[in-house]
Specification:
Layout (H helix, E strand, L loop, with lengths): L4 H19 L4 E5 L4 E9 L4 E8 L5 E11 L2 E8 L5 H7 L2 E3 L7 H5 L4 E8 L2 E6 L1 E3 L4 E6 L3 E2 L2 E2 L1 E9 L1 E11 L2 H6 L11 E10 L17 E5 L31 H12 L3 E4 L6 E4 L2
Bound molecules: 2-acetamido-2-deoxy-beta-D-glucopyranose (3 copies).
Keywords: Signal
């Protein structure tokens, strides 16, 4: 039997098209910080709910940004936007994904040599929260995988509230209080967790007012981050100094449209699908869910 060349090329195109549909994923735009850090995401493995974030600093200076994102299910919001790392940071601290850093931020690849992603304290309207600090040199591209984009057997999709610049303000010792059950055991019941009350030295950052409300995803509700101002870097002990004021995070409040019980049920479902994910420039395998 003899096929015409045209027929063969149609078959070839169809098979390329279907191979592409299966094997390559389109990058979705997430957001751009005023400094020019562009963030996209794409599926790495839909069946496993695994995505990859790409941060690309298209600006001309080094920039530190946060990623404020939530998730949708069947086109409707499911997880309210919160800053990446606010939920489950105590688990990340002990599973090797994240580490607080003291001092001015440096581009990620330098931290990656130590296989730890930097987390830091972000001052949101006078309250501190723990967030991933993505610092990129001009032209630098950083990729990071995130698992857990599955709910009730279907994919959920990230949606981005914003990618925003944060500014280094100093370093200090903070006392952290968190709920071990919500912020660590529910992430992974087998891993060790930090004590529910611990001190850590960390850089702290500011962000333009109004860009982030709080970290309103339920595992982080109730976290308290208290700066020990006496040990603040670069500030002597001055009784009259406004920086002597103790700044303390209040309990996070869930926005009215989020039902806490509902969120907790979602998290249980999502948790059953925890899978390893990795920082591609580092090589350390990590686990995380939403
Ligand atoms: C990063 O952004 C630059 C400038 O827009 C572009 O040329 C480059 O292809 C981007 N890199 C990636 C990996 O997206
Ligand atoms: C955080 O502080 C509030 C107010 O003092 C307190 O009620 C709450 O229990 C603290 N959270 C933790 C995890 O200790
Ligand atoms: C902050 O909260 C308000 C009201 O709850 C909401 O309309 C707004 O979108 C939120 N902004 C961000 C950046 O989360």
């Amino acid at each position: 039997m003899k096929y015409s060349l045209a027929f063969l090329s149609v078959i070839l195109c169809l098979s390329i098209a279907s191979a592409q549909a299966k094997c390559t994923y389109i990058e979705e735009y997430c957001g751009t910080s005023p400094s020019g850090v562009v963030v996209h995401w794409k599926w790495v493995n839909e069946a496993e709910g695994l995505i990859e974030w790409t941060f690309n600093n298209t600006g001309s200076s080094q920039a530190s940004v946060i990623l404020n994102r939530g998730a949708t299910y069947n086109g409707v919001p499911l997880v309210p936007p919160y800053v990446f790392a606010a939920a489950y940071f105590p688990a990340y601290l002990y599973d090797g994904l994240a580490q607080y850093f003291y001092g001015k931020p440096v581009p990620l690849r330098n931290y990656q040599a130590e296989y730890d992603l930097p987390i830091g304290m972000l001052d949101v309207d006078g309250h501190y929260w723990t967030v991933f600090v993505f610092t990129l040199a001009p032209g630098q591209v950083f990729r990071m995988e995130e698992g857990g984009y599955i709910y009730e057997g279907s994919n959920i999709f990230p949606y981005c509230q914003n990618v925003d610049d944060i500014t280094y303000e100093g370093s200090a010792v903070f006392t952290i209080q968190y709920h071990k059950n919500e912020q660590c055991h529910q992430f992974d019941s087998t891993q060790p967790c930090p004590p529910e009350n611990f001190d850590v030295g960390s850089a702290y950052y500011s962000i333009k007012k109004g860009l982030v409300n709080s970290t309103n995803f339920w595992p982080s509700a109730g976290d308290n981050f208290t700066m020990n101002v006496c040990l603040e870097e670069g500030h002597g002990y001055k009784e009259s100094s406004p920086s002597m004021m103790m700044r303390k995070a209040n309990r996070a409040t869930l926005t009215t449209d989020v039902d806490r019980l509902h969120m907790s049920n979602i998290n249980r479902a999502v948790r059953s699908l925890v899978r390893p994910s990795k920082v591609s420039t580092g090589g350390k395998r990590v686990t995380r869910i939403l």
